[in-house]
Recover the amino acids of this structure.
């Protein structure tokens, strides 16, 4: 069984910190990452790893809290197409590793963005690492798009959230995907379970436990009220959906479907999956937990692969 890995890291905001744990699991199990590709958050981790600075990046992310996140939000007051310029984030990353040409990194590294003008995937294998990363992380409406020549670049995850087909491959390597946009159900307000008041009363009577008439009446009234709430919530799922959550869900569904398409077109040998609603896009203050989950998920996927092979 070969141990060389072509690793692909998907998009998904803060869930992308799981990529750090996934890489640690691969290396601890004796696998050698010989090439890497990523988009959006996956492009940051791919670039840091290919530059040999992943440990430094991990230490930095573990120090991130909500206050630091706010300080990095360089609000774009004059723009009509984005909230944040995005330059402060790149400046922070350059403190970990200075910018350098992608082709000069330790292993082949591929970063993917989307040209919103031509609706084409843009693949970076050469040129400035942080220019490519800045383009790849440009969440539409949030980060300012990056113009390079006649291209206007946004988040690579828009067209291809798991860029399996672009990673550089060598003969006999293993194609490994860390997918952080796994199919998941939309979180909704929980519907209370029905309360079997009559059954509980019958059980108490059978056990010889007396129930005062006033208490029995009150319990029946409460049961009817709760059952009415349950039925109303079940009949009106739309109460969980606001204008903002509707837009978020539409984006989530697009990413999920594009991820499934990428997996069908280029099936990986090893596929580790984190569900899309495991963490939100901006849960960077939960770095330790997300990294640990990535480590666990990759180990589970490796266990399955090694049993098969």
């Amino acid at each position: 069984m070969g141990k060389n890995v072509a690793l692909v890291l998907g998009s998904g905001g803060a869930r992308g910190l799981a990529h750090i744990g996934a890489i640690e699991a691969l290396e601890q199990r004796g696998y050698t990452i010989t090439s890497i590709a990523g988009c959006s958050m996956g492009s940051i981790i791919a670039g840091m790893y290919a530059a040999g600075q992943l440990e430094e990046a991990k230490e930095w992310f573990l120090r991130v809290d909500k206050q630091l996140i706010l300080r990095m939000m360089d609000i774009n007051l004059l723009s009509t197409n984005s909230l944040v310029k995005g330059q402060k984030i790149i400046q922070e990353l350059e403190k970990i590793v200075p910018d350098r040409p992608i082709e000069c990194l330790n292993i082949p590294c591929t970063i993917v963005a989307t040209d919103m003008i031509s609706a084409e995937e843009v693949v970076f294998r050469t040129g400035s690492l942080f220019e490519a990363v800045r383009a790849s992380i440009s969440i539409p409406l949030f980060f300012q798009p990056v113009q390079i020549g006649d291209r206007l670049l946004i988040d690579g995850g828009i067209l291809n959230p798991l860029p399996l087909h672009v990673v550089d491959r060598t003969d006999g390597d293993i194609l490994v995907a860390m997918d952080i946009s796994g199919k998941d159900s939309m979180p909704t307000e929980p519907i209370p379970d029905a309360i079997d008041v009559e059954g509980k009363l019958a059980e108490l009577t059978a056990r010889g436990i007396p129930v005062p008439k006033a208490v029995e009446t009150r319990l029946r009234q409460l049961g009817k009220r709760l059952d009415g709430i349950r039925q109303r919530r079940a009949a009106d799922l739309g109460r969980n959906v606001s204008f903002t959550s509707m837009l978020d869900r539409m984006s989530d569904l697009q990413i999920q479907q594009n991820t499934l398409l990428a997996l069908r077109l280029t099936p990986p040998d090893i596929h580790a999956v984190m569900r899309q609603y495991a963490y939100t896009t901006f849960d960077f203050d939960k770095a330790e937990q997300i990294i640990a989950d990535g480590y666990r998920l990759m180990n589970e996927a490796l266990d399955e692969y090694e049993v098969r092979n």
Observations:
- The mean pLDDT is 86.
- The radius of gyration is 24 Å.
- Residues 213-235 form the longest helix (23 residues).
- The CA atoms of residues 185 and 286 lie 22 Å apart.
